[in-house]
Amino acid sequence: MNNPGINGKKRPERGNGPVVNIRDYMPKRDFSSVWVHLFAILVVTIAIYSNSVNGAFVADDVSFVKENIAIRSLANIPDFFLSPKSLAAGDSEWGTIIYRPLRTASFAIDYALFGLRPFGYHVVNLILHMASTVSLYFIVLGLFNIAGVAFLSALLFAVHPVHIEAVSWIASRADLIGMVLFNLSFLSYMRYKEVRSKTWLAASLALSFLAYVGKETMVFLPGLIIFYDYATRNRRPISDTVKANIGSWVLFAIVCAVYMVIRASITGRMSTNQGWWGGTAYSNFLMMAEATAAYIRLMVLPYGFTFHYIIDPVYSIFAPKVVVSLVVILASIVLIIYSHFRNRLVFFSLVWFYLGLVPIANIIPISFSMMAERYIYVPSAGPIIAAGYGLYRLYRYAAERSPGLQRLAAGAIIVLVLIFSVQVVIRNDDYKDEFAFYSSAVAVSPDSPPSNKGLADQFYNRKEYPKAIDYYEKAIALDPGYVEALLGEAVAYRETGELGKALAAAKKAALVEEKVASLKPKNPLIKFNLGNIYKEMGDLEAARAAWEAAVELNPEYSEALNHLGIYWQLKGDNAKALSMFERSLKANPYNAETHYNAALLYERGGDAEKAGGHFRRFMALAGPEYAFEVGELKKKGY
Asked: By CB count within 10 A, which of 99, 152, 262, 404 is most buried?
């Protein structure tokens, strides 16, 4: 039987003997084309993501960047590793449940360089994506020893549309940072296995810890290391492989465990405590089966991208969607088993995907959504590597048959890359501003409560309050317990002067929040806005009580402290008012309105020096809504 193998090199018949490792029959690495490959990949990546750098801050970017005053000083960087509340805006719950200090540190560096100009932040995201792609190229080159496989794999990773969210959404930077460090750790381990230098092992372990700090979902790295050693063991018995590598495996497990302990001690939690999706572990499992099948579909047929994916609760394994999902999963597992007997490196690549799903499998439920495109930024690398190898084999097969078939195969690969690239360019437009972002999300997922609430927020910002209320009500109809939508509706009603409806919506938001208080931190925004509504209704005492409740929930809530200062000023107690204004400015030195209020009190008290300092600070910070006040101060010579 003819068995030419790869590149014409004959390999043994499989028969009933041990599985052959394909690396034994591949040529030595040829680096002559590496730099050409990398140049081409980077040019393509920059070209298709060039329109993303003009995007705005959208969605969570506001809490993590735009309104997070902690990033405005590089001196705060140590706090990011020790104080979760510094990772997001003070009135946001995210800072209490998200621990990704490297991302926040990178935002602080961005702010030092670019201020609040989104362009720079997007450029950094793009650079990190290119770093992920380049490091993946070298991983594949190390696995297969074939530059063509590395080129196709890295190119597919660079242009695959499923990565748009991770790259074009600034807040998704943790996935990018995590993958760069993940890849470098894995590359260091590969180097360690080649030269057996403990220096490379130490570097790999250190980088693995940083990868976890980058994003917690990188914790599947120890499992990937084990499967790598298994897939590249050649003909060695498994027992010998275990004996030879158990020491390094234990070290990786220890480093991962140390990270988990540190994270838990700093955050006080391992999860967002949101409870099982569907209410039970069984339902959560069935829903995750749907999510897994959806991820596979996004990898194979990338279309229908959206900000928020909806998976309805399922309570029976015989539900049609579950049955279809399980069939898809079973087919993928059969493919993995088949690859185990045909090519261990392809097997390793496909296993990469399922290992990467473990941290996002909602074993510890994720609070916002069961699934998101950014969640599989790193897991997707596995099947993309397998696809890159498959395309290379297809091209080589065609080249061996005829020049015509070779051109046809090359054309098919180019068309695939072009289709993916066009999708990236088009989808990037959804990130140009928040209105486009949420409009796209509602168009794709009209039954998504967060998408409707987000679009409502945009109509509110445009002062189109009736439209905002319509979308808030749609979000509430889809999810009656959606506290943030109820709160948004309350604020919109306040702007239209319908104070009774505003008060009812705000009280309902507070009531709903009480019911879920054990699952997530209370949001001080509810009490703050409730106070604002009471103030509009003329009930200053109720307003004061609500603002004080907001400050109790967050002692550094600058806006609530500012309003309490106004309250005491109206009551004639200027000493208490100044105390509140100073507390407000200590919490947020960038609060223009508080600077103005404090300046007025100091001016009335005869302290011209302090008044002038606060007036000048106000003028430096004031937005266009304070144009009249700034103009008046300029007339006075400030």
From this structure: 152
Q: Running DSSP on this structure, what letter comes out for residue 89?
A: -
Report the candidate in 59, 589, 87 with the shortest Cα–Cα distance to residue 374.
Answer: 59
DSSP-derived secondary structure for 445-486: -TT-HHHHHHHHHHHHHTT-HHHHHHHHHHHHHH-TT-HHHH
Can you give the pLDDT at residue 92? 55
Cα–Cα distance measured from residue 5 to residue 7, given in angstroms and rounded to the nearest whole number: 7
Long-range (24+ apart) CB contacts under 8 A made by 6-12 are 6/396, 7/396
Exposed, middle or buried by CB within 10 Å (0-12, 13-18, 19+), for 276? middle
Q: How far is CA 10 from the centre of its chain?
A: 47
- Which pLDDT value is given to residue 515? 72
Q: How far apart are CA 62 and CA 53, in angstroms?
A: 17
CB under 8 A, 24+ apart: contacts of 561-565:
561/587, 561/594, 562/591, 562/593, 562/594, 562/597, 563/528, 563/531, 563/532, 563/535, 565/594, 565/597, 565/598
pLDDT at 202: 96
SS3 label, residue 40:
helix
Low-confidence winner among 169-183, 315-329, 407-421, 526-540 (lowest mean pLDDT): 526-540
Which has the closest alpha carbon to 345: 1, 101, 23? Answer: 23
Q: What is the DSSP letter of 361?
A: S
| pLDDT-based confidence at residue 269 (cuts at 50, 70, 90) | low
- Give the Å distances, CA to CA, from 141 to 37, 131, 135, 196, 364: 12, 15, 10, 19, 35
Rounded CA separation 375/506 (Å): 33
Q: List CB contacts of 405: < 8 A, sequence separation 6 or more.
A: 398, 399
Q: Label residue 526 by pLDDT band (50, 70, 90).
A: confident
Amino acid of residue 130: M
- Residues 6 or more apart whose Cβ sits within 8 Å of residue 552: none
Buried residues in 437-475 as b, exposed as e (16+ CB within 10 A): bbbbbbebbeebbbbbbbbbbbbbeeeebeebbbbbbbb
Query: What's 11's DSSP letter?
Result: -
**What are the counts of helices (DSSP H) followed by strands (DSSP E) for the chain?**
29, 0
Cβ-Cβ contacts under 8 Å for 13 (sequence gap 6 or more): 1, 3
- Residue 271 confidence (pLDDT): 57
Question: Given pLDDT bands bounded at 50, 70 and 90, which one contains residue 273?
Answer: low
Question: Using alpha carbons only, how large is the chain's radius of gyration in Å?
Answer: 28
Q: What is the pLDDT of residues 92-127, one digit of tens each?
A: 555 456 789 999 999 999 999 999 999 999 999 999
- pLDDT tens-digit readout, 350-398: 999 999 999 988 877 666 678 899 999 999 999 999 999 999 999 999 9
Nearest of 374, 386, 381 to residue 217 by alpha carbon: 374
- Percent of the chain at pLDDT > 70 equals 91
Q: b/e string for 500-512 if b means 16 or more Cβ within 10 A? A: ebbbbbbebbbeb
446-520 homologous superfamily: Tetratricopeptide repeat domain (1.25.40.10)
- Cβ(379)–Cβ(224) under 8 Å? no
- CATH 1.25.40.10 location in the chain: 446-520
Tell me the C-alpha distance between 391 and 397, whole Å: 10
pLDDT of residue 22 exceeding 50, the answer is: no
What pLDDT digit, counting tens, does each position of 426-438 carry? Answer: 999 999 999 999 9
Q: Residues 6 or more apart from 324 whose CB is under 8 A from it?
A: 293
